[in-house]
Amino acid sequence: MSNSGLTDARARIPDELAEPLYRFLDHVRLERGLADHSVEAYERDLVRYLSSLVTSGIDTVGRVTPKDVSDYARLLDDIGLAASSVARNLTVVRVFHTFLVTDGLVEENPTENQRPPKVGRKLPEVLTIEEMGALLGQPDLDTDLGVRDRALLEMMYGVGLRVSEAVDFQKSQLVFDAGVVRVFGKGSKERIVPVGDQAQRWVRRYLDSARPSLTKPNSPSNVFLNFRGGRLSRMGIYKVLQKHVVGAGIGKDVSPHTLRHSFATHLLEGGADLRAVQEMLGHADISTTQIYTHIDREYLKEVHRTFHPRA
Asked: 207: closest CA among 154, 262, 260, 136?
């Protein structure tokens, strides 16, 4: 979470939650003697946690239940954070609630019987914002395929598309006038996702100038076509990505799913609300969708516009 994102997120926390936070931060700084960077890390994790509680309608630390903590852990996992990051976040939450009991601010500790998550699940790499910029700058824009590649990468990163969603993407799903796209995910479940100016710009350019040159009489209606005018396949997208990863000098193990994880991570690092990012990702696990709160589309667009680097 950037400094500006942290400031914005902090401003959304009501005084009833902010006061215990600042008492805790003073405690770890003054009484436990933690270094400034450690205190800042505690603050980032706890601001994210308290912001999630606010979204769930919880306005005081005394109202937090074990289920609230479990729901938060599930959100962290579903959003795509590495297991080690989830474990760190929950450790900070546990230390925070233990302090609240010790300091007499609350009577019960909702984390007392929480089991720490297992660490070991390996997730795809996440690109830094700088690496993402270098990757997006690789396609040769003097060629039709280069313009297609730029539009494809901008869409996958700017909207958080799964590779299968990019393969099947249709022009009818573009609702640029409203600043959104319709995405059909697993099980044909539809979600509406904001799309930033950069992605819109490159997709428009591709549709206007490059796709017509790639189109053949028997071409499908899919947005992204290969050089023969057919549908760009999953393997085709993988090869496009690998070509530009190598060209950008990125040494990480990058897959199409890396762009989706980078989409979520960069929004979160910017200070975006967990549930807003969750909604944009369109996770299909029924056991987790039950804990979601309804998020207005205008709010989603505002979150995307405020926190996504390419918006």
From this structure: 154
